[in-house]
Structures are given as structure tokens and as C-alpha cells.
Specification:
The complex is a heterodimer of chains A (357) and B (271).
Chain A (H helix, E strand, L loop, with lengths): L3 E10 L2 E11 L4 E5 L6 H9 L6 E6 L2 E2 L10 E4 L11 H10 L5 H14 L15 H13 L5 E5 L7 H18 L2 E6 L2 H7 L2 E6 L2 E6 L1 H6 L4 H6 L4 E11 L2 E6 L4 E5 L8 E6 L5 E4 L10 E11 L3 E8 L2 E8 L11 E5 L6 E3 L2
Parallel strand pairs in A: 3-8, 3-9, 6-7, 7-8
Antiparallel strand pairs in A: 1-2, 1-4, 4-5, 9-10, 11-12, 11-14, 12-13, 14-20, 15-19, 16-17, 16-19, 17-18
Helix pairs in contact in A: 2-3, 2-4, 3-4
Chain B lengths: L1 H30 L15 H8 L1 H34 L5 H7 L2 H4 L2 H19 L8 H25 L4 H8 L4 H29 L3 H6 L7 H10 L5 H24 L5 H4 L1
Helix pairs in contact in B: 1-12, 2-12, 3-7, 3-9, 3-11, 7-9, 8-9, 9-12
Classes of the chains: A alpha+beta (357), B mainly alpha (271).
């Protein structure tokens, strides 16, 4: 089991920087999600670790050894591809045995380890099937078993669940996590599905334009995004901009450019500073506004523009001045608030997160 | 109602096949008829096959055809497979344009291509001071290779495109050296396509008339050219006999192509 360290990774395609100075350390046994829009560099990084891409600059170390010059087949990695890439001319057992076979492992040991791997991914009994005779989820398991049977130092997953339907995907998420925990392998996976990243990962890194915008535990990144991109990419956010008018007792009072005031923790803020604040839609509570209700800090008045019903939850679009607020509400017993009705939005001071623009 | 429609479809398809095969069947049957004037009633005899065995010109031409077809198969299949792999697995400048340029030659009439080749070879011959080099078996072979390359690239390329590059990458991550990847993953996956392509290359060359006719110097012929010459001189059922043999060989090859090419991709799933 191993630590993977990426330092100063740079990769250009023509004038486009696919990786623009990436530093990341993947701790031993960690499940690490790389997130970002397409073209943000996450896949490039994964493929550089695998050895399919040579960096222009920077280095990749596994347990302190620089692997930049080591060809793919000597790197001792396991990789699961987006469409599994099972060998169509081999059956399940032969697919899993491939990595051992090319290393000239003895036949008896191959048999033993293939059968252990099949147990690990719960596919015992299917060893003679061809890949085409398996369901998507089963193919996924075979690909995982094949990648793990050689006991690699690092497991790389390239959007491994994106080809599965939603139910199967959730089942495989649990399965993937169980297997990863059981063998404790350092795992790096690329996904564009933010929920999947949050569910599976010990830590995530958000990529944009070849750089790591933010890395940390899913909760830390979600609750305390550092900038507008991170806040907007991971989940949804309302953005409020204004200027600090008063700082007192560790709390800053911000006058919003659209009118109204909010309070936010004052760390590092200066008087009169322009600030951008991210506010998650589910942190806001929404209620019908009684006649004569007045705005207060962290409490604003608005009008329902739309209420979108999606089963377990409701998404409100609320007009506040010329700005639209997004508000999530659990679908409890109350009927959805009608369009055009006046509402009060309220939220705690701690949920106002100052972010870089 | 459904049965009626089924029967209708079957009847129609039988008509299509009759249309295709009746002339061939008639010709083949007459190869076994004794009369030199194709007179009926039918009288079974192998006399024309015996005559064929003694016809040195036809046999010589047949041997030329087989040799050229075999050489063409080896050369065109190797070059074409490499080209298909280059197109399918690498990116380089001008790739799309090169790929697009592969296919027009298929649509250009053979007559035009044959003329162009003849003129071109003459020009080369004159330029290097050996006008005689313009025609001959080597020129025919070159012409056939040029003609069959697009087919080979297309057939192998189709097979290659059915399988993602990730297969080879996966093999590499599992510890396979580039050589092992090629031998244990690329070759088995490509094999049906390569076999089909080589049969195509053989058939394209073996059946080729126009280019061979243009590029054959006096005294050297291939089978189709010799058949054409014989027919012009007034012909005997010997031609039927040799044609029957050609048809059996060609059909055999094409049936194998159909097996590998059409159904190749699904074999593993249907087992």
C-alpha cells in the first residue's frame, strides 16, 4: 500500500494547459476523488499516473520513487476503465488471470488468486462466462477483480460507474467502497458526478483549467468552498455580493449590492472590503411572509417565481429585487408555496461563506 | 396474415437469388456438356476439363493469376493492416484528410485507373530509360496492390474501431509488455478482420481484368485476360470449365469472408 505524490505537474496540448502546476498527495489507503468539468485536467492527471501521458514538467512519486520514466507495464498499478475494457476473446477467469499470466506466475497460484478475486467481487461461479454474457454491473466487478488481482500499489478508476444505471450505480458505490476498505488500497478516481465523489471519497480535489481549485474532505469542500467555481461546481450555491459595513464581535455586517444586509463570520475581513458570499440553497428556510414583515440581517423578503417538485424535495426560485434565490426544502407535510406569494427567507450567520470571486 | 407475409418475403428473396445464380448455373452445367456448340440435349462429359488440362496458355495464365493474387494478398494485407492500425490508434496531422482520400479510388472506374497506371508506368519507364518496365507481372501486381489496399484498410479498420484503445491500455496496466499486448490482445482481436481482408485482397486481384489487361505485355496474361482473349477468338466450353473452377474458388473464399467479417464480432457472444 502506498502514498502517491504529484508535484508541479504540467502538461500542455498545443497552447492548452491540461495540467497547470498540480500538487497533490494521495495518502496511503485513501479513497481520493478527482472532480471537475470535462477538460479540467482530472483525467489527464489520472492517465499521467497510469503512464499513458508523459508530463512536460513535474514528477509523480509512488512511495518516494519517481515513476515518471517507468513505462506503464512496470508501474504496478491497477486501473478500471470507463467501459471496463474487458478482453472480449477471453472468459472471466482468463481476463482476471491476464495480469498474473504475463508476469509468469505459476498456474496453481493463478488459479488460487483468480478464485480469491472472484470471491472478493462476489462473482464466484461465473468464471467461464464471456464478458458479453455479463450484465454491466458484473462486467464492472470483473474489471475491478482484474485490476486488483496483481496486488497493485495504486488503484486508478476512470469514471468507473458512469456507464451503469442509477440503481446499479448506487449498489456498485457501496460495493466499491467495501472492497477498497477491505484491501486498503490507495485509490484515485475520476468522476464528473459530484454526488458520487462526495459519497465515496475520503478526500476530493476540484479541478478547473488544469489546476486544483480546492482539495479536502467532502464535507470541508462542500461547506467551506474557497471560491465561486468550487461553490458552484460542487452542489448549488446562491452568490451574494456586497461591502463590509461594520465589524463587531467577530461578525461582519455586509450591505448587499441588491439591498438588504447579512451577517457573516468576520475572519480576515476588513472594513469597507468588497466581498462575495456563497450560500447553499438547503441552508435557507422559507416561510410565507406575514403582512408587514420586515427585512433584517440574514432575513430577506421575496416572491415565489417557481416551485419545482421533485419527489423528496422542492426547489423554489425566489425573486429578491432583480435577483433569483434558489432554495431547497424537504417535502414535508406542507403544500408547496404558491407562485407569486410573498415569502421570508432566513438562515444562520455561519452559513454565509465568504469566497474568492 | 403473418405467414403470408413471411412466404412473400421468402419468395421474393428466392427470386433475387435465382436472378443472381441462374446464368452462373447454366454456364457451369454447360461445362459438363459434351457438345462444343452448346447444343442440347445435355450429355455429361468431362471432355472440356481434359482439354483445359492440356491448354498451356490457360494454365499458364491461371498460374500467373494465382501467384499475383497470393503476392497481392500478402503485400496488401500487411500494408493495409499497418495503415488501419495507424489510422485507428494514432493521431497525426492530416489524418482525416488522408482517410477521406482512401475511398475515391474505389469509386473511380477501373478503366480510368488502368489507363492512368499504364500512362504512369510508361512515363516512369521512359524517365529511367527502360520503357519495357512499364508492363509486366510486377506492374500488374503493383496495380492490384493499389486497388485492394482501400478494401483491406476499410475491413481491418472496421474491426479495429469496434474495439476501444482502452483494451490495449488495460493490458499495459496489467503488466503486459508492448510485445505481449500486441500478441495477446491486439492480434486476437484483429485476426478475424485481417483474415477477411486478406480474402478480399485475394479476390480483388484474382478477379481483376481491366488493370491486368492494360499492364500485361504481349505473351504474359492472367486468367481473366486470357479468357477474354479466347472468347474473342471464338470459344469452346473449355472457358466454361475454367470459369466453373474460378467461381467455385471465389465463392468458397467469399463464404469464408462472410463468416469472418459479418459474424466475426459476435462469435464470442453466441457461444
Amino acid at each position: 500500500m502506498s502514498e502517491v505524490a504529484v508535484k508541479g505537474a504540467v502538461k500542455h496540448y498545443g497552447t492548452v494547459a491540461a495540467l497547470d502546476g498540480v500538487d497533490l498527495t494521495f495518502a496511503d489507503g485513501e479513497f481520493f476523488g478527482l472532480l471537475g468539468p470535462s477538460g479540467s485536467g482530472k483525467t489527464t492527471l489520472l492517465r499521467a499516473i497510469a503512464g499513458f501521458i508523459e508530463l512536460d514538467r513535474g514528477e509523480i512519486r509512488i512511495d518516494g520513487t519517481d515513476i515518471s520514466r517507468i513505462p506503464v507495464h512496470q508501474r504496478n498499478i491497477g486501473m478500471v476503465f470507463q467501459n471496463y475494457a474487458l478482453f472480449p476473446h477471453m472468459n472471466v477467469a482468463e481476463n482476471i488471470a491476464f495480469g498474473l499470466d504475463v508476469r509468469s506466475v505459476a498456474a496453481a497460484e493463478i488459479k488460487q488468486r483468480v478464485s480469491e478475486s472472484l470471491d472478493l467481487v462476489r462473482l464466484s461461479g461465473l468464471d467461464q462466462r464471456r464478458p458479453k454474457q455479463l450484465s454491466g454491473g458484473q462486467q464492472q466487478r470483473v474489471a475491478l477483480a482484474r485490476a486488483l488481482v496483481t496486488r497493485p500499489q495504486v488503484l486508478l478508476l476512470d469514471e468507473p460507474l458512469s456507464a451503469l444505471d442509477k440503481h446499479l450505480r448506487q449498489e456498485m458505490q457501496v460495493e466499491l467502497r467495501r472492497i477498497q476498505r477491505q484491501i486498503g488500497i490507495t485509490t484515485i478516481f475520476v468522476t464528473h458526478d459530484q454526488e458520487e465523489a462526495l459519497t465515496l471519497s475520503d478526500r476530493v480535489a476540484i479541478f478547473n483549467k488544469g489546476q486544483v481549485v480546492q482539495a479536502g474532505s467532502p464535507r470541508a469542500v462542500y461547506e467551506r468552498p474557497v471560491d465561486r467555481f468550487a461553490a458552484g461546481f460542487l452542489g448549488e450555491a446562491n452568490f451574494l455580493d456586497g461591502r463590509v459595513s461594520v465589524i463587531a464581535g467577530g461578525v461582519a455586517r455586509v450591505v448587499l449590492s441588491t439591498g438588504g444586509e447579512i451577517l457573516t463570520p468576520a475572519a480576515d475581513l476588513a472594513l469597507n472590503e468588497a466581498v462575495l458570499i456563497a450560500l447553499r440553497p438547503e441552508k435557507i428556510s422559507i416561510d410565507p411572509a406575514p403582512a408587514g414583515a420586515a427585512a433584517m440581517p440574514n432575513r430577506i423578503l421575496g416572491t415565489v417565481v417557481a416551485a419545482i417538485f421533485s419527489g423528496s424535495s422542492l426547489t423554489y426560485r425566489i425573486a429578491v429585487g432583480d435577483r433569483i434565490f434558489i432554495v431547497f426544502e424537504q417535502n414535508k407535510s406542507r403544500a408547496p408555496l404558491p407562485e407569486q406569494s410573498a415569502v421570508i427567507l432566513e438562515w444562520p450567520t455561519a452559513d454565509n461563506v465568504v469566497v474568492k470571486p | 396474415m403473418k405467414n403470408l407475409a413471411d412466404a412473400g418475403i421468402r419468395f421474393y428473396l428466392i427470386l433475387v437469388l435465382v436472378f443472381l445464380y441462374v446464368p452462373i448455373l447454366v454456364m457451369a452445367v454447360l461445362a459438363f456438356n459434351k457438345s462444343p456448340l452448346y447444343a442440347l440435349p445435355f450429355e455429361f462429359d468431362l471432355v472440356w476439363f481434359k482439354a483445359l488440362m492440356e491448354n498451356d496458355r490457360l494454365l499458364k495464365a491461371g498460374l500467373n493469376s494465382v501467384l499475383i493474387a497470393l503476392a497481392n494478398t500478402v503485400i496488401a494485407t500487411s500494408l493495409g493492416t499497418m495503415a488501419a492500425v495507424a489510422f485507428g490508434r494514432y493521431t497525426f496531422r492530416g489524418k482525416t484528410m488522408m482517410q477521406a482520400l482512401l475511398f475515391p479510388p474505389i469509386a473511380i472506374p477501373w478503366l480510368v485507373i488502368g489507363t492512368a497506371m499504364l500512362v504512369f508506368f510508361f512515363w516512369i519507364g521512359r524517365a529511367i530509360g527502360y520503357p519495357g518496365i512499364a508492363r509486366g507481372l510486377h506492374a500488374i501486381l503493383l496495380g492490384h496492390v493499389a486497388l485492394s489496399l482501400p478494401y483491406v484498410i476499410f475491413v481491418v479498420g472496421t474491426r479495429l474501431n469496434d474495439y476501444p484503445k482502452a483494451l490495449e491500455e488495460a493490458a499495459a496496466t496489467l503488466g503486459a509488455t508492448p510485445c505481449q499486448v500486441f500478441r495477446r490482445v491486439s492480434v486476437p482481436i484483429l485476426a478475424p478482420g485481417v483474415v477477411a481482408a486478406s480474402l478480399f485482397a485475394f479476390a480483388v486481384s484474382f478477379d481483376q481484368f481491366v488493370i491486368s489487361y492494360f499492364l500485361a505485355p504481349p505473351g504474359v496474361t492472367t486468367l481473366p485476360v486470357e479468357i477474354y482473349t479466347s472468347i474473342r477468338k471464338g470459344f469452346t466450353p473449355e472457358i466454361n470449365a475454367i470459369s466453373t473452377i474460378i467461381i467455385l474458388v471465389s465463392m468458397g473464399l467469399m463464404l469464408i469472408v462472410a463468416r469472418f467479417y459479418r459474424f466475426g464480432g459476435e462469435r464470442s457472444g453466441n457461444e
